[in-house]
Write a structure and sequence with these properties.
Blueprint (H helix, E strand, L loop, with lengths): L2 H19 L1 H10 L3 H27 L1
Helix pairs in contact: 1-3, 2-3
């Protein structure tokens, strides 16, 4: 992968991780509003995004 493309991909993944962190407060707000379905969804999405983004970042760092 070209250096610039790799850098752009890593920057996008970091931005995605930053956005995923916002799911935590949103999930807590949903729990306070007693919307467990939404809270569970947000927690699941956050876990999935963070796990996959970290995996891809590690892969890109190894290239």
């Amino acid at each position: 992968m070209a250096h610039e493309t790799n850098h752009d991909a890593r920057a996008a993944l970091h931005a995605l991780l930053d956005g995923a962190e916002g799911c935590g407060p949103a999930a807590r707000a949903a729990r306070l509003a007693q919307d467990d379905e939404l809270a569970d969804f947000l927690c699941g999405v956050q876990d999935e995004i963070i796990g996959e983004a970290r995996r891809l970042l590690a892969q890109r760092a190894a290239e």
